[in-house]
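#lab-general

N.A. 3:47 PM
ok so I finally got the sequence cleaned up, no stray characters, all 249 residues accounted for. can someone with queue access submit it? mine expired

B.Y. 3:52 PM
send it over

N.A. 3:53 PM
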Amino acid sequence: MPDFAIYPSLKGKSVLVTGGAGGIGALTVEAFAAQGAKVGFLDRDEVGSRAVADKTGADFALCDLRDIDAMQAAIATLATKLGDFTILANNAARDDRHNWQDVTPDYWDERMATNLRHMFFAIQAIAPGMIAQGGGSIINLGSNSWWEAGGGFPAYATAKSAVHGLTRTMARDLGGHRIRVNTVVPGWIMTERQKELWATPEGLEAHRNRQCLPDLIDPVYVARMVLFLASDDAAMCTASNYMVEAGSI
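B.Y. 4:20 PM
back already:
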C-alpha cells in the first residue's frame, strides 16, 4: 500500500460518515480515524458496525437511513458526543441490480430512499452546526454508472445522477457560509460486495479494457479522495465532480 498523505487540518475535526460498516464507507471511517479526526458513522449493520468501531475507535449509531426521523435523531446523538460535525461523507447506497420491466412505483421510491433522499436530509441536519462553526465540507458519493450508460439498474443510476444536482445546488446555497459541497465519482470499485456478487472474470476483463489504467480500483482510493476534499488543502474546491474511475468513462 502506498505511503499516503497526512492532512494536519483534519486532526480533531468531527466527521460523520453514512454507511460506515462496510465497503468504501468502512475504509473512509478508517482513513479519517488515522488522521486523528473524531469520527462517527451511521449504519444498520450492527455486526459490521461493531467491527469497524473496534478497529478504528470510531463511534457509531444504528439506524435505517430510509427512516429520516431515525437518521436525524442518530446524527443528533453522535453530535452530542463528538461535537458539531464540520465534515459529512454522504456515502451510503446499494447498487442492487434490477430489470426495468420489473420496477414498480414502490420499488422505485424505495431505491430513491436508499440511494438519494437521505443525503439531502443528512445535509439538512448537519449544516446548521457547520454554519455555527464557520464552515465545513460535504462530500456526496456519486457513481460513474450513468456516465458510462451502464444498464441493469435504472433506479440506482437515476438516483446517482441526481446526486450531482444535489451537490451543485447545495454548494450554491451553503457556499456563503464557507461550506463546500463536492461529489466523488467512483468507478467499479473492488469492494467485497462487488467481488462476491458481480465481479466475474469476463466482466473484470471487459472493464479493464474500458479503463485507461490497467489496475482494478481498491476502495481505499475513494476514501483518499474524500479525505482530500474534507481537508483545508481543498479549501477552494466546491460544486465539482472528482473522478476515481481509472479513466473508464
